[in-house]
């Protein structure tokens, strides 16, 4: 309608125009209301996204620069608990008695012994003794193996030479056929690379300081051939881990080189740690991150309890009969990342850990029964209270927030999180796996990547052997120095009965028996 045109004078026409304008106005108001609601929803979504990004930035900043320890303050002492246990004995600890003692005697000269009062000789009335821990540089030496040959001079020439002549066995000197390295040097190289995180080029420089020239490629060949030698022992360790009732498992990433490719894809080291019936740390390397090449192959056939994260890669293992035991340390970490909204959950989880600190180690049937009874009586009420809080908070927490993600992480796997209370052999968390994987995480900052997918598989064998020695508190160098020649002497296909005496825990018991006899 033209605004300059005169308005009609008919009342009915004017009333129709007013009604049309009212309808148009109502329609415009409705559209405006819808746009305002849409804008408000957009603003709310942006605010939630900003809050999530801020929380993510705060977690990254805390992870990079903040306090890394997850220790919590101890609960107040309850009367009747008895005296507090000392965790550490301060002061200098005595030096081990089995170490060699080299004495340096400080004495007076004949002139100094003469008494300045009467001129006679002083008599020794006592002595003081101070002990220091010292060492000599690693002595390299040449090991010569001489094989003598004997012949019978009484047999006629018609007798076969194989019957008349005999040479001392074995015909090859190990641990590597035609290898330059002796068992002690090879053990030192393996422990240096896989336990002390020394890349091979640094070990070349260290050996060179003794005036010995060895190339880095030579050390690489030693590492590869020793992995082949240790594979049969590694497979026996892995087989026993698969048959134990409880194990701990986790994974960590590591790049590996591919021939002809400029970029290095990520592979993964998986670890499985057996309980005291099979106390071995078995590693497995995969070029991908799928279940088929990971847990399904590595731990295939396991039917006991598995301490693991809530990764989808383990679902096939659980579907086949293994029981999942989730990690409360991971859950607490997620609630800590949520800030103040997750404080109530953190407080309840801390109470669960305070109960764990009072429990004995699961080293006897009596202790195992006591651990389960204490958890059933004291931990289950706290878990039920936490579950009620999670159900109530889930309805108010934003789905994309850190708190919402933490709640869903625990609520979706609640049965796995409470399973540790059902058996005294189980742990409240999977920290044992995380501590074990530091063996690779610390070394990765030195050697950066593994040379190939095959090198990753060889590294898994070495990490399994030295990691088991570390897990049991053994001297890995002394163990390898004795076991490598023994494996070489067994040949290419040793049996399980032949390998059993060479397992780290069996070797440790044999060493203790030797010390007792000595």
UniProtKB/TrEMBL annotation:
<dbReference type="InterPro" id="IPR004291">
    <property type="entry name" value="Transposase_IS66_central"/>
</dbReference>
<dbReference type="InterPro" id="IPR052344">
    <property type="entry name" value="Transposase-related"/>
</dbReference>
<feature type="domain" description="Transposase IS66 zinc-finger binding">
    <location>
        <begin position="112"/>
        <end position="155"/>
    </location>
</feature>
<protein>
    <submittedName>
        <fullName>IS66 family transposase</fullName>
    </submittedName>
</protein>
<dbReference type="Pfam" id="PF13005">
    <property type="entry name" value="zf-IS66"/>
</dbReference>
<dbReference type="InterPro" id="IPR024474">
    <property type="entry name" value="Znf_dom_IS66"/>
</dbReference>
<keyword id="KW-0614">Plasmid</keyword>
<feature type="domain" description="Transposase IS66 central">
    <location>
        <begin position="178"/>
        <end position="456"/>
    </location>
</feature>
<feature type="compositionally biased region" description="Basic and acidic residues">
    <location>
        <begin position="59"/>
        <end position="73"/>
    </location>
</feature>
<feature type="region of interest" description="Disordered">
    <location>
        <begin position="59"/>
        <end position="102"/>
    </location>
</feature>
<dbReference type="Pfam" id="PF03050">
    <property type="entry name" value="DDE_Tnp_IS66"/>
</dbReference>
């Amino acid at each position: 309608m033209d605004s300059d045109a005169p308005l009609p004078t008919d009342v009915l026409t004017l009333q129709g125009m007013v009604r049309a304008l009212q309808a148009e106005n109502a329609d415009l108001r409705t559209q405006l209301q819808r746009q305002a609601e849409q804008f408000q929803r957009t603003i709310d979504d942006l605010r939630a996204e900003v809050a999530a990004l801020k929380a993510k930035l705060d977690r990254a900043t805390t992870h990079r620069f903040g306090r890394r320890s997850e220790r919590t303050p101890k609960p107040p002492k309850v009367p009747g608990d008895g005296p507090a246990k000392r965790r550490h004995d301060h002061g200098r600890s005595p030096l081990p008695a089995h170490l060699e003692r080299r004495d340096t005697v400080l004495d007076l000269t004949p002139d100094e012994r003469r008494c300045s009062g009467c001129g006679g000789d002083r008599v020794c009335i006592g002595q003081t003794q101070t002990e220091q821990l010292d060492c000599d540089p690693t002595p390299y030496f040449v090991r010569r193996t001489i094989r003598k040959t004997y012949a019978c001079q009484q047999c006629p020439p018609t007798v076969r030479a194989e019957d008349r002549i005999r040479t001392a066995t074995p015909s090859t000197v190990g641990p590597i056929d035609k290898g330059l390295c002796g068992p002690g040097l090879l053990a030192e190289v393996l422990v240096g690379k896989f336990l002390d995180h020394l890349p091979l080029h640094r070990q070349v420089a260290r050996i060179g300081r003794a005036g010995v020239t060895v190339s880095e490629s030579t050390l690489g060949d030693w590492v590869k051939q020793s992995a082949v030698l240790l594979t049969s022992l590694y497979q026996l360790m892995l087989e026993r881990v698969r048959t134990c009732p409880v194990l701990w498992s986790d994974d960590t990433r590591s790049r590996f080189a591919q021939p002809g490719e400029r970029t290095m894809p990520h592979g993964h080291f998986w670890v499985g740690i057996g309980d005291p019936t099979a106390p071995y740390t078995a590693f497995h390397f995969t070029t991908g991150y799928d279940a088929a090449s990971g847990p399904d192959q590595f731990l295939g056939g396991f039917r006991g309890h598995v301490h693991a994260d809530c990764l989808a890669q383990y679902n096939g293992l659980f579907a086949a009969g293994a029981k999942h035991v989730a990690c409360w340390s991971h859950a607490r970490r997620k609630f800590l990342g949520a800030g103040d909204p997750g404080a109530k959950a953190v407080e309840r989880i801390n109470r669960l850990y305070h109960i764990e600190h009072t429990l004995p180690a699961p080293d006897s049937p009596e202790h195992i029964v006591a651990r389960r009874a204490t958890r059933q009586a004291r931990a289950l009420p706290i878990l039920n209270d936490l579950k009620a809080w999670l159900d109530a908070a889930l309805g108010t927490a934003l789905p994309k927030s850190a708190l919402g993600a933490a709640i869903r992480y625990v609520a979706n796997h609640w049965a796995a999180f409470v399973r540790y209370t059902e058996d005294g052999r189980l742990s409240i968390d999977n920290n044992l796996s995380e501590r074990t994987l530091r063996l690779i995480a610390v070394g990765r900052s030195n050697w950066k990547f593994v040379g190939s997918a095959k090198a990753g598989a060889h590294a898994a064998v070495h990490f399994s052997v030295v990691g088991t020695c570390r897990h049991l508190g053994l001297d890995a160098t002394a163990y390898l120095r004795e076991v490598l020649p023994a494996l070489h002497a067994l040949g290419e296909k040793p049996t399980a009965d032949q390998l059993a005496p060479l397992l780290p825990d069996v070797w440790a018991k044999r060493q203790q028996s030797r010390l007792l006899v000595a």
